[in-house]
Amino acid sequence: RSSYSCCYFVLPCCFFDFHGKYSRRQSKKTQYREYLDFVAQVGFVCGFHVEEDCLRIPSTKRVSFIGKSRTYPAAERAVVDQQITEFINSRRTCAVATCDRRVGFNHEDHCGGLCKEAGSGPPGDETETAGTVWMPGFQPREKVEQVRNCASLPRDFVDEVVLSVANLLLNAAPQKSCSDKQGGNVNTWNRGESLSLTEVAEHLDKEILKKLKSEYGGLQTLLKNNHQVFEVLNGRVHIRDWRKEKPASKTKPEVKRRLSAEAFKTRLCWFFIHHPDGCSLPSEACPYAHGTEELR
After folding, report:
1. Which parts of the sequence belong to the C3H1-type domain (predicted)?
2. Is it the case that residue 151 has pLDDT exceeding 60?
3. Of 86, 88, 124, 279, which is least packed with CB atoms within 10 Å of its CB?
4. Which of 52, 77, 96 is the last residue of a domain?
């Protein structure tokens, strides 16, 4: 609708209609195929010759649509725009099933008469054109999307929360005996206790929780982001024990194995610095630096 000379490319992914989540209407098709047919239908209603292509990308959603040319002359743009408006309104007001048609049919066949049933929409909707509001109440997202996955939180704030939660887990239970970082001997390395996210939140300062509430996933996201220190499984928080991590596969190609062995340590080991018993792994086995002299 932007202009008659406009072309488009679309890679359908999430199942959404004009006004919300897409409702399935064809049980004989997969959800993905049905949604692809709907997206192609939109292109035909808008007066495009719709072409389908499968991209060579590592994704399960690879089917794309391209609209490079129109099915009508420029002089008929106002008529087609009226049809588009009616089609949009019909998706909102009508619950009739869309026809089980494939790509390549004309507009009337493809929309199954939905455009003719749009009269039940709000007064004035049927007279909308490209020069007015296309969908009343539609709110586009901001041009600059705010990052709210805890990644933009101040580093000192994150470090404070991590240290508070770790100390809470370490002090929640008496120390348990387990093999020390040198192997062989039995020594005490405090693995702490596991607590539910609710229990952890109850022990945190209210100001911290207030700040985390504005982030998607809140406390859980912050702890998962700091996977060097924590494991979050089934709603419970654990101190990560790096001795239990699976070693690198011995079946890796020689080149990858060599690169992995020569990898530089770019971050300090949290356990070496903060854990009362130090790191559970010796320096050569730990993927993190035991001291600034190991940093590269």
Report:
1. 263-293
2. yes
3. 124
4. 96
